[in-house]
Design brief:
Shape of chain A: globular
Structural class of chain A: mainly alpha
Pfam families (chain B): Cyt_bd_oxida_I
Distance between the termini of chain B: 65 Å
Strand order of the largest sheet of chain A: 1-2
Helix content of chain A: over 70%
Membrane topology (chain B): Multi-pass membrane protein
Oligomer: heterodimer
Number of strands of chain A: 2
Largest interface: A-B, 68 and 75 residues
Transmembrane segments (chain B): 31-52, 72-92, 112-133, 140-160, 250-270, 282-301, 408-433, 459-481, 510-533
Distance between the termini of chain A: 47 Å
Number of helices of chain B: 22
Order of helices and strands of chain A: HHHHHHHHHHEEHH
Low-confidence stretches of chain A: none
Helix content of chain B: over 70%
Number of domains of chain A: 1
Keywords (chain B): Cell membrane, Electron transport, Heme, Iron, Membrane, Metal-binding, Transmembrane, Transmembrane helix, Transport
InterPro entries (chain B): Cyt-d_ubiquinol_oxidase_su_1
Strand order of the largest sheet of chain B: 1-2
Radius of gyration of chain B: 25 Å
Mean pLDDT of chain A: 91
Mean pLDDT of chain B: 91
Strand content of chain B: under 5%
Number of strands of chain B: 6
Number of helices of chain A: 12
Chain lengths: 370, 547
């Protein structure tokens, strides 16, 4: 395995780990704000309790996603210094937007939690608007970096950092990202609620319903994104769609994963529908709701693998070619394999520990006495 | 700020642009804010630990109640540390993009390990401790707390290792000395000379064109430079990393525990409730030990400055040296004794360094590159005709105007440190241990002198408050002396500040906006911590009840 490929794979691994958690945050935040508003409008205590559960899920995941963001950033700057420098130059403003989102979201989360029940429901619901906006600013800013990879504007003569906002790949990408995140958040929430000792069937039904309702728009956004890729990045589009859609795919590593993800998305739809049916009949859909949550994350992981991996061997893709990862990979040092293995071992160990703690904190709601 | 050399190309390297000055304001504010939160993150677990041990030892529920309250404050503070850390990290990359070189060379191992071992572990264990405190058996709870604290400290070591490399670039051998003859050799020769010269030429070339950091944004950058640093593990063994870590972490513990001591003292003075003094005493042990260890670690850190950052050392003693500091050399027996172990050793002034620069003769950058790295010659542009002596002199002249500021910060640190040590001894010998003669002297000062001035009951809270405030003053001033004294370089002897700043113009408006955002975080963060600290039951509410 050459160093460029290994560095590319590791970057992908750190990105995937970050996205597993960050999608839950985005989804849970948006759903919290919406459900809280509905609870206020309908004066519905059950909806209010559900919104609180969603919010708890978001808070429990928030810091850990931040940790993975740090790991991802450090590794990106280490392994691909020029690519990082290009982002910092070409996407200076989008990154600043994302940073404002990160900075603003923490006090807003604290204020939203603290003021829940202490101020009028109308004012509290209104406070959800800046909260949701701050959480959304993070992907809104950072997705410009992915758009830059797919449609590099920095190579154009006379490029100014403000031009980053005119990237044609960005609108479908961000639509696909946000709808997908809310969808994943809904299915993961349903899984958490269903896995509890005394499941909240109303909450399970509602979150599954939201998740199911968003599957179609997500498919449309996916199609829109694919159309943009086909227009501006035929290399990626060919790798994603493969021979099944008549493309001459340069690599066989990605289109099978894409079709597997589509198949899993269909399975997700069927299982979630059955879980929803069970919940409406008053039966706790523990196994099926948990399966839906796991499937939602699996679809995201596969789709992101395809989305980011299909550019290889290029990093910045321009039509049918691009700037190879090997050209951008760090050559200033020989990355010590021992350092990489120790780091991977450590992150996996602490992720396992976090998962156990998360299970007891969010699913079991507390830890046993001893 | 700095004095112009008259050579436009050299000035472009050393005279700060307005953008660089604005960026410095943003980064200084951000780093201090992050350091404040991180100091609390490192100090609070020690206070919690002290109270939990007292609780397990005495069974007094007061200690558990306050340990739980402080745990909630710690959790809020940790979240704020993460936010400000993210801002600082991205600020570093976004505003100082040449710092990406650190991530991809000498700083790789420490920064990667900081994220993948220390930070992730600390985050998970802080969360686990919040759930466990008061619920799990003592051995589990204390183990988690100690592990979280140790990982937090390890995180500090990794980050400070990178900062230490910027101050003492261990492993670049004699490369800086070739350009600045007064600098020493920095450890073994792990840096490839040709790559270092190419790297310098590329960055200088772009600095002359507007911003050195733009060099990294070229897709051929790493290929053009090639293998630069042969031993990525070496920075972990940087002697300055060890002394800086010990000194800075002790300072952070003092500031963190001191903040709790200050809060308890203020409460006692307001309410006269003895429970606050009871809670204060275990913390004073930590404060006293940490504070009294500081001069030793500080001395080793000072030795590193003398050995590896001679210009900074001269700037540091500008206030005692007076005008002589701008001459060739002068005598200062006390500083010379601490610095060289010999009170008669001369302390060199700026003129000495300028004279050393003169030893480079009329050699130009062009001649140097023609001899050692002809392939990079083309990158030099107008700098090819600048002499190495001019470049060296510009570096010396850049620090001269800042010397009084560096010195003021240095002596503020030393003065605060001396007062801090006196306060620690007075607390230790009167309130914590009894030692023949020494405790009698401390009692006399505390009860006969301070007691008469302040009231006998107020002496202990006064001393605790003084230790807290002086710790913060010493830490802030010491860090300022360290960082301002690093000028004109960002990486000592290798990269100047202008070579590191972003190519995007950092306007006063942008800087003001970021500072306002950071100030808002500081204000809201402080309010959130105060709110949490004044609501003892909050942690149980947060954790929920039994199902």
């Amino acid at each position: 395995m050459n160093s460029a490929f290994l560095s590319f794979v590791l970057l992908g691994f750190f990105l995937e780990m970050h996205l597993v958690f960050v999608n839950v945050i985005i989804g849970a935040a948006i759903l919290t704000v919406l459900v809280r508003y509905l609870a206020y409008r309908r004066n519905d205590a059950r909806l209010d309790a559900l919104a609180r559960d969603m919010f708890r899920l978001m808070v429990a995941t928030d810091l850990f996603a931040g940790v993975w963001a740090t790991i991802l950033t450090v590794y990106m700057a280490s392994a691909f210094p020029s690519m990082t420098a290009i982002f910092m130059k070409a996407d200076f403003y989008p990154i600043a937007i994302a940073l404002v989102g990160i900075v603003a979201s923490i006090p807003l989360i604290a204020a939203y939690w603290h003021l829940w029940g202490r101020i009028g429901p109308r004012t509290h619901s209104a406070l959800g608007i800046p909260l949701a906006a701050s959480v959304l600013l993070v992907p809104i800013g950072f997705r410009y970096l992915f758009a830059e990879l797919d449609y590099p504007q920095f190579i154009k003569p006379g490029f100014s950092p403000i031009d980053a906002f005119a990237n044609p790949i960005y609108p479908p990408l961000i639509a696909h990202t946000i709808i997908g995140a809310v969808d994943i958040g809904a299915f993961v929430l349903a899984a958490v609620l269903a896995a509890r000792k005394n499941p909240d069937l109303y909450g399970v039904r509602l979150s599954l319903g939201v998740g199911l309702a968003l599957l179609a728009p997500q498919a449309v956004a996916g199609g829109y994104y694919f159309a943009a890729l086909a227009k501006y990045d035929p290399y990626i589009a060919a790798n994603v769609a493969g021979p099944l859609l008549g493309y001459d795919s340069p690599s066989g590593l990605f289109y099978p994963a894409f079709y597997a993800a589509v198949a899993l998305a269909v399975a997700l739809g069927l299982i979630a529908t059955y879980a929803f049916y069970q919940a409406t009949k008053g039966k706790a859909p523990r196994a099926t709701a948990v399966a839906a949550g796991v499937l939602a994350e699996a679809v995201m992981i596969l789709m992101e693998y395809v989305n980011d991996g299909a550019r290889y061997p290029y990093m910045f893709v321009t039509g049918n070619g691009g700037i190879p990862a090997a050209q951008l990979v760090n050559q200033l040092i020989q990355m010590p394999p021992a350092a990489i293995y120790v780091a991977l071992g450590s992150t996996l160990f602490f992720t396992a520990l976090f998962s156990i703690a998360f299970y007891y904190a969010v699913v079991k709601r507390l830890l046993p006495e001893d | 700020m700095a004095i112009s050399t008259g050579d436009g190309a050299v000035d472009a390297l050393y005279l700060h642009t307005a953008s660089a000055d604005n960026a410095l304001v943003v980064s200084t504010f951000g780093i201090y804010l992050h350091a404040a939160f991180v100091s609390l993150t490192l100090g609070f677990p020690l206070a919690i630990l002290a109270w939990l041990i007292e609780w397990y030892r005495t069974g007094d529920g007061l200690y558990l109640k306050y340990a739980k309250t402080l745990t909630a404050v710690w959790a809020v503070n940790f979240a704020l540390g993460v936010v400000t850390g993210t801002v600082v990290e991205f600020g570093l990359l976004d505003i100082w993009p040449t710092s990406i070189l650190l991530f991809s060379s000498s700083g790789f191992v420490p920064l990667f390990y900081e994220a993948t071992i220390a930070f992730i572990g600390e985050a998970v264990l802080v969360g686990l401790f919040v759930m466990a405190v008061g619920r799990w058996r003592a051995r589990y709870t204390l183990s988690i707390l100690l592990a979280a604290w140790a990982l937090g400290s390890l995180s500090g070591y990794f980050i400070l290792t990178v900062n230490a490399w910027m101050n003492v670039p261990w492993g670049v051998g004699g490369i800086p000395r070739a350009l600045y003859p007064f600098l020493p050799t920095y450890g073994p020769d792990a840096a490839n000379l040709t790559s270092a010269l190419t790297l310098a030429a590329l960055v200088m070339n772009h600095t002359l064109a507007g911003a050195g950091s733009a060099a990294l944004a070229n897709v051929n950058f790493t290929q053009a430079v090639g293998p630069f640093f042969a031993d990525p593990w070496l920075p972990l063994a940087n002697p300055d990393a060890i002394s800086t870590t010990v000194h800075t972490l002790l300072a952070a513990y003092a500031v963190g525990v001191g903040a709790v001591a200050l809060a308890l003292s203020a409460r006692y003075l307001r309410t006269r409730d003895e429970k606050y003094l009871k809670l204060l005493k275990p913390l004073l042990w930590i404060m006293a030990v940490v504070v009294l260890a500081q001069p030793i670690s500080g001395h080793f850190m000072g030795e590193d400055v003398v050995a590896y950052q001679p210009l900074k050392f001269t700037a540091s003693v500008a206030l005692t040296g007076g005008q002589a500091v701008y001459g060739y050399s002068f005598n200062d027996p006390i500083e010379a004794l601490f610095a060289y172990g010999n009170p008669n050793h001369p302390i060199y002034g700026f003129q000495y360094y300028l004279q050393q620069c003169g030893a480079l003769g009329n050699a130009t950058f062009g001649q140097l590159y023609r001899q050692l790295d002809p392939q990079a010659l083309g990158y030099l542009g107008p700098l090819a005709n600048a002499t190495l002596a001019q470049n060296c002199e510009a570096a010396v002249l850049s620090l001269e105007p800042l010397a009084p500021l560096v010195s003021a910060m240095y002596y503020t640190m030393v003065g605060s440190g001396i007062l801090l040590a006196i306060a620690a001894l007075l607390v230790l010998l009167t309130y914590l241990v009894r030692a023949p003669v020494l405790s009698a002297i401390a009692d006399f000062i505390n009860f006969k002198l301070l007691g008469r001035l302040l009231g006998k009951d107020n002496v202990l809270p006064f001393l605790a408050s003084a230790m807290a405030v002086l710790s913060a003053v010493a830490a802030s001033a010491g860090w300022a002396a360290r960082e301002v004294g690093r000028q004109p370089w960002t990486v000592y002897g290798l990269f100047t500040t202008n070579e590191v700043v972003t190519s995007v113009d950092v306007t006063p408006g942008f800087a003001a906006f970021v500072v306002l955002v950071l100030a808002a975080i500081a204000a809201l963060g402080a309010a959130a911590m105060y709110y949490t600290a004044t609501r003892p039951g909050l942690i149980d509410k947060l954790r929920g009840s039994h199902e």
